[in-house]
Write a structure and sequence with these properties.
alpha+beta, Glutaredoxin, Glycosyltransferase, four-stranded mixed beta sheet, 23 strands, about 10% strand, Ssp411, 6-hairpin_glycosidase_sf, Thioredoxin-like_sf
Length: about 675
């Protein structure tokens, strides 16, 4: 094989680079790759995955590293590898096709396309022998039944366009009654015994928990807060949480949060960090405070790179899933000595039978031990011993949206824990992402090692980064963050909003690469939908921005929420972030302007802690921000002005009076 046959060596995706030594002649998705398929008159083999995906590694080892497989692929196909995290637009299009054809999706995704990108056969993981049979069957169909293949691809492409998930537009803006009914629907689905929602596999419900917490803050309802506290405690004490070093795995393979799928994703940890920070801020719960701090430390220590945050840690180490994290009683005694080893086994639920593979157990923590000093010493010793084990590989790709989540979460955690160092980490990340990922006035999706990739940013990138920057503006009063955030929102409104249907958003820009369909999915997935995220950002900006821009943002956010009403009414569990935004909107959203001489104001600090999720908080001298125009200190004291929508209360001058002004109202 010539050095140029496989063209992934210069990719900005670590996942693609993992396949650079395959005998398969992989290429990145490009117009040239599609043109080559047309010139050779062969179908495209499209394989989509991501670096932390266990079964992606399995299929790569079994099939893509196999010479017999490579001979067949190279002779009869143009092989294209895609990192779903770098090209979520392609992933969305072909996942829709895969689910439509097979009834389920997943990664690795294996699709066969015509040279112009129309899918005609899709699946997921195939073992080597099954994959060889599939290659032969697809190749034979292409050569001998070409008409049938073309007809099928036309039909599938037509069905995809008709199935494209879009908001209908129009409708009425969600009100308190709709939010109450949506919350009741969500609460009815809670797994009260184990915490969270649904059965195995069980995923952290970050967006739903944020929505339920905001519902509690709006109404004072104790059942929604109890659901949040049960889920947060269950996850924090389960195997899905790293009991030694902090950070959450992607999901639990069981309903009890015992055994995780061990990959750790930046987006999960950033979204969960925000939830735990808000629980800590609202309740002061010691467990929530500890998990907030440890998760922030995990982000900075294990995913940090040059101020930004990388994408993930693999589930595997040396090809073995969970090798880094699982323990046997004997390993605990070897690491700690007999006495501490037996004590640790009891504390962390490590048994001779094991909860995982090969008689090993994933560490859990049913309750905090009474001996805190011993617990800290044992944890530290086990963490040091674990560091000598094989470690999971890291995907060093920097994704704009996920770093936006991290900026917001770290800023919120800095308030919850009164830790300015976490705000510094958020500021450093924001500067690095903006400096590198904004190119010629347009945002890019990802970078690697300081080199920005060619992939255009999607809606969630603009929205998540804008929200993070607007959060920083509120905490720093630095106008630069407001300027960059509103520039991003202007691009989003101009290029992602449907000009024909109010409130509908596309996930790709109108000047992005044209695909089989233009993705527009308003439903939350592993991360909140881009449409819900942009609505949150617009709501914030509408109260921070002066002039006609504010009216434009407010109108756009209102139309978006109105278009989301059917989702909240019918499938609220799949619209958690919409519900969170709606809860904030129904309550005002609340704006708190604190007239003060400086950021050391006790009243301003109290406002940030007391403000409910989705509120806007600014502080400074009179006229220093849009919300502070005409609002000054009162009688020589700092003064807080609380507004709901366009209705404002009389100013208050003490934290106690501010807390009373923010008391929950149904």
């Amino acid at each position: 094989m010539s050095p140029a046959a496989n063209r992934l060596g210069a990719a900005t995706s670590p996942y693609l680079r993992q396949h650079a030594d395959n005998p398969v002649h992989w290429r990145e998705w490009s117009a040239d790759a599609l043109a080559d398929a047309a010139a050779r008159d062969v179908p495209i083999l499209l394989s989509i995955g991501y670096a932390a995906c266990h079964w992606c590694h399995v299929m790569a080892h079994e099939s893509f590293a196999d010479d017999e497989v490579a001979v067949i692929v190279n002779a009869g196909f143009v092989a294209i590898k895609v990192d779903r995290e770098e090209r979520p637009d392609l992933d969305a299009v072909y996942m829709t096709a895969t689910v439509a054809m097979t009834g389920q999706g997943g990664w690795p995704m294996t699709c066969f396309l015509t040279p112009d990108g129309r899918p005609f056969f899709c699946g997921t993981y195939y073992p080597r022998d099954g994959f060889l049979q599939l290659l032969e069957a697809v190749g034979d169909a292409w050569r001998t039944r070409r008409g049938e293949v073309e007809e099928a691809s036309d039909q599938i492409a037509g069905e995809l366009r008709s199935m494209a998930a879009t908001l209908p537009g129009g409708g009425s803006v969600p009100d308190a009654d709709l939010c109450d009914r949506a919350v009741a629907h969500v609460l009815a689905d809670e797994d009260i015994r184990h915490g969270g929602f649904g059965n195995a596999p069980k995923f952290p419900p970050s967006a739903l928990l944020e929505a339920l917490l905001r519902h509690h803050e709006r109404t004072g309802a104790t059942d929604s807060l109890a659901t949040v506290e049960r889920a947060c405690a269950a996850m924090a004490r389960g195997g899905i949480y790293d009991q030694l070093a902090g950070g959450f795995a992607r999901y639990s393979v069981d309903a009890s949060w015992v055994v995780p799928h061990f990959e750790k994703m930046l987006y999960d940890n950033a979204l969960l960090l925000r939830v735990y920070a808000h629980v800590a801020r609202r309740t002061g719960d010691p467990l929530a405070r500890r998990v907030t701090r440890e998760t922030a430390e995990f982000l900075i220590r294990d995913l940090g790179a040059g101020g930004t945050f990388t994408s993930s840690l693999d589930a595997d180490a040396d090809g073995v899933e969970g090798l880094t994290y699982a323990w046997t009683p004997g390993q605990l005694r070897e690491a700690l000595g007999d006495d501490d080893g037996r004590w640790a086994a009891d504390v962390f639920g490590v048994t001779e039978e094991g909860t995982f593979e090969r008689g090993s157990s994933v560490l859990r923590l049913a309750a905090d031990p009474a001996d805190a000093e011993r617990f800290g010493r044992v944890r530290a010793r086990l963490a040091r011993v674990r560091a000598w084990r094989p470690q999971p590989a890291r995907d060093d790709k920097v994704v704009t949206a996920w770093n936006g989540f991290a900026i917001t979460a770290l800023a919120d955690a800095s308030v919850a824990l009164a830790d300015p160092g976490l705000l510094d980490a958020a500021l450093t990340c924001a500067r690095a992402v903006v400096d590198l990922h904004v190119v010629d006035g347009r945002l890019r999706r990802a970078s690697l090692g300081g080199r920005v990739g060619d992939s255009a940013a999607i809606l969630e990138d603009h929205a998540a980064l804008a929200t993070g920057l607007l959060t920083l503006y509120q905490l720093t009063a630095d106008e630069d963050w407001l300027t960059v955030a509103t520039d991003l929102l202007d691009v989003a409104v101009a290029h992602f909003a449907d000009p024909d249907v109010a409130g509908r958003w596309y996930d790709t820009a109108d000047d992005a690469e044209s695909l089989v369909l233009r993705p527009a999915d308003p439903v939350d997935g592993a991360t909140p939908s881009g449409a819900a995220l942009i609505t949150e950002a617009l709501h914030l900006a509408a109260h921070l921005t002066p002039g006609p821009r504010a009216d434009l943002y407010a109108a756009s956010a209102t139309a978006s929420l109105a278009a989301a009403t059917p989702l909240l009414a019918k499938v609220p569990r799949s619209a958690g972030h919409w519900l969170a935004v709606a809860e904030a909107a129904v309550r005002g959203p609340i704006q708190i302007a604190v007239a003060c001489d400086g950021f050391d104001s006790e009243l301003l600090a109290a406002a940030r802690v007391l403000a409910p999720g989705g509120a806007v908080v600014v502080g400074g001298p009179v006229g220093s921000a849009e919300l502070l125009i005409g609002r000054d200190r009162v009688g020589g004291h700092d003064a807080a002005y609380v507004c709901r929508g366009r209705t404002c209360d009389l100013p208050v001058t003490t934290p106690r009076d501010l807390a009373a002004a923010l008391v929950a109202r149904v």
